[in-house]
């Protein structure tokens, strides 16, 4: 992973909670934030897929980032961060179930420490704040890009046979 240049512009990030931790995402990959609602479970889906929901006529796959990042703490799971289809190469609309959403703020490149996260997939760095650390994550964590519905994946396998 390349080092962040210190003369680069600040990045706007959305801070949110997962368990006891605070995390952030570049707002450029976010389409909207919605209240958590009814989900339809998908049989035989990967562990990180919570289900799907209808979001203004779009079937949206809801992912649990706690499973992706091995976070074991519970939380209220109140909001869904929906990613922009144009920014994320998922092949469909995807959202993350998060415990709560805190704020949007600017992060200067010099406030991001990447030394401790060089080999961590899905982690862009640690944002140093006044009295805490915020983990800057990426929405393209391993397996998130392979979120086809189980039925369509099975049909593709049958066609190949």
TrEMBL record:
<feature type="domain" description="CheW-like">
    <location>
        <begin position="10"/>
        <end position="150"/>
    </location>
</feature>
<dbReference type="Pfam" id="PF01584">
    <property type="entry name" value="CheW"/>
</dbReference>
<dbReference type="InterPro" id="IPR039315">
    <property type="entry name" value="CheW"/>
</dbReference>
<dbReference type="GO" id="GO:0007165">
    <property type="term" value="P:signal transduction"/>
</dbReference>
<dbReference type="GO" id="GO:0006935">
    <property type="term" value="P:chemotaxis"/>
</dbReference>
<dbReference type="GO" id="GO:0005829">
    <property type="term" value="C:cytosol"/>
</dbReference>
<dbReference type="InterPro" id="IPR002545">
    <property type="entry name" value="CheW-lke_dom"/>
</dbReference>
<protein>
    <submittedName>
        <fullName>CheW protein</fullName>
    </submittedName>
</protein>
<dbReference type="InterPro" id="IPR036061">
    <property type="entry name" value="CheW-like_dom_sf"/>
</dbReference>
